[in-house]
Structures are given as structure tokens and as C-alpha cells.
Write a structure and sequence with these properties.
This protein has 10 helices and 11 strands. It is globular and about 75 Å long. It is of the alpha/beta class.
């Protein structure tokens, strides 16, 4: 056996993504480079690690076993690097954060300089819907979560970052003349919803119920990007966080329909389980947010 750490990392990413194309994108490598390394890694085993069936990549049972061992090896190597950095007085370790879907427009601005200042910290960032993020918190499988609605069933510490505002938005060519309330909207206009479990969907449904109207036509999409593109294509209306549509408003692809009771307002919170013993990396991130959050908001969100 003469495999390299690079081959182990590439194989793990292929297992994670089930795709050479996606693995190459996430690793910032060319697709041929990933394919060659995967082939070289496979050549050291008599049993196949992967199978290509109907142009889809599948990981064999043996491949999953090797991936489990490879992950252990990579974790041990990372631990050596962390301990070396700590010995040299540098902050090092892992930082894991789960983020609700809309939070992907927020979180990068609060991470960029922190990671640049601490290059030995490895970040794992998962973007999902509210239900999965709450599950991550419940299982204590992440250091932090970014949410706009605090789950009442959990005992959490938090840092409040900034406002989250939701507006009724439409295609720029949609005729809004004479529309002063939700009841004035055309009856046949579809409303575009996020999937069940999304905080944006919950807020949207609550607001529509409060207005005493029923929606005859509904579309359900599984991401804010998909909802945004559907509204741009004039497929219907939606209530969306303004944080994710700023550029489209500036370019006049979308426009806001002023409406009583809107915007819906909440706050973005960075939360973690109260009593959880934070790692040095996590403690440093909390201190960084407390010191720098206002200047970040002024610079990027004012």
C-alpha cells in the first residue's frame, strides 16, 4: 500500500458527494485530477471502492469501510497539526456551524476575517432548513447554529447579530396599482412557499392566516434561491428575507409590494447549547463576534 493523504481526502470527498464533479468543485480541483487520484487510489485494492451504474456513481460496501478508516486517519493527522499549532502558540482546531438556508447570505461576512486571522482552524459549515438545524442543536453535533427563530424547547446561549426582515416580493413587471392589502391581490396569482420545516415558510403562513385570506394556488420549492428565481420568472409571489434579494432589487429584477404588517421582523442569532463546554476555537469565535459584529453589520448590511 502506498496511498497518500491527498488521495484519502479526495476519496472521502467523493464518498460524501457521490460525484466526481461535485467533489472536484468542493476541492477546487479539476475533474480529471480527481478522477486520476481516485483511479490511483483504487489501483491499490483488489476489491472495487466505487461502481458506475447508469452513469451514476455508487460507493460499494468495501468502499464505505475504507472511507470510515480513511476518516480516522485524516482526523488523526489533523489532530497532529492542531497540537503542533497550539504548541507554537497559535489557535487551532475545528469549528462546526449549522445554518438555516437564508443564513447563507449572512454567515460568510461573520467568518471571513476570523478564519483569515486563524488559518489553523478548520470550518465545517452545513446549510439546511430549520428542522435539521434544530436537530443538530438537540444532538449537540455542532458548536453553533445560526437561526432567525429561537427554539423554545432548547436551553441556549446566544449572540444576536442583526435584523431579519421579510417582504412580499414580485416580478418587476407585476402590476401593483390598486393593491393596498393582501385581499386586493388577484385570486389566481400563485404563492411560492419554502418546504415544510422552513422558518420562512412558517412566518409566511402565519402572516397569511392573520390577514384572513386563503391561497388557491401554491408552489413549494426547497431553497430560497429556487424561490427567488421562480419569482424573477414571474411564476408567482412570495414573502422573502430581504437579505437574499438585495442585488435583484437593485437590478430591478424584483420589487417589493408594500403591505400592512410587513416587513415581518426577527433577528439573526448565533446560538449554542447552554452549559456546553466550548473548545478554544469556539470561545475565540464568540469573542470575535462580540467585538466585531457591529462593525461587520455597518460595513456590509447598513
Amino acid at each position: 500500500m502506498n496511498f497518500t493523504l491527498n488521495q484519502l481526502r479526495i476519496f472521502l470527498k467523493v464518498v460524501e458527494t457521490r460525484s466526481i464533479t461535485k467533489a472536484s468543485q468542493e476541492l477546487a480541483l479539476s475533474q480529471p485530477a480527481v478522477s486520476i487520484q481516485l483511479k490511483n487510489f483504487q489501483s491499490q485494492f483488489d476489491v472495487p471502492l466505487t461502481q458506475l451504474i447508469n452513469r451514476r456513481l455508487f460507493i460499494t460496501a468495501f468502499g464505505h469501510e475504507i472511507a470510515t478508516l480513511a476518516e480516522k486517519i485524516i482526523n488523526e493527522v489533523n489532530e497532529i497539526n492542531y497540537q503542533t499549532a497550539l504548541y507554537n502558540g497559535q489557535l487551532a482546531g475545528k469549528l462546526s456551524i449549522s445554518v438555516v438556508s437564508t443564513g447563507k447570505y449572512v454567515i460568510p461576512f461573520f467568518l471571513t476575517d476570523f478564519l483569515a486571522e486563524n488559518p489553523n482552524i478548520d470550518l465545517k459549515l452545513d446549510v439546511s432548513n430549520k428542522a435539521q438545524v434544530i436537530s443538530d442543536l438537540t444532538e449537540n453535533s455542532v458548536d453553533f447554529s445560526l437561526v432567525s427563530t429561537l427554539p423554545s424547547e432548547l436551553n441556549l446561549d446566544k449572540i444576536t447579530l442583526m435584523k431579519n426582515e421579510l417582504y412580499l416580493v414580485c416580478h418587476s413587471g407585476f402590476d401593483t396599482e390598486g393593491i393596498n392589502s393582501m385581499k386586493d391581490l388577484p385570486k389566481n396569482i400563485p404563492f411560492i412557499y419554502r418546504e415544510a420545516g422552513s422558518a420562512t415558510r412558517s412566518a409566511m403562513e402565519k402572516y397569511i392566516d392573520q390577514q384572513g385570506i386563503s391561497i388557491d394556488k401554491k408552489l413549494e420549492l426547497t431553497s430560497n434561491e429556487a424561490v427567488k428565481q421562480a419569482v424573477i420568472a414571474n411564476m408567482g409571489l412570495s414573502i422573502m428575507p430581504i437579505i437574499g434579494i438585495r442585488q435583484e432589487l437593485k437590478s430591478q429584477q424584483l420589487k417589493i409590494i408594500p403591505m400592512k404588517g410587513l416587513p415581518l421582523e426577527s433577528n439573526w442569532h448565533m446560538v449554542w447549547n447552554r452549559g456546553n463546554r466550548l473548545s478554544p476555537s469556539a470561545k475565540a469565535f464568540v469573542a470575535y463576534l462580540e467585538k466585531n459584529k457591529n462593525s461587520i453589520i455597518d460595513a456590509f448590511f447598513s
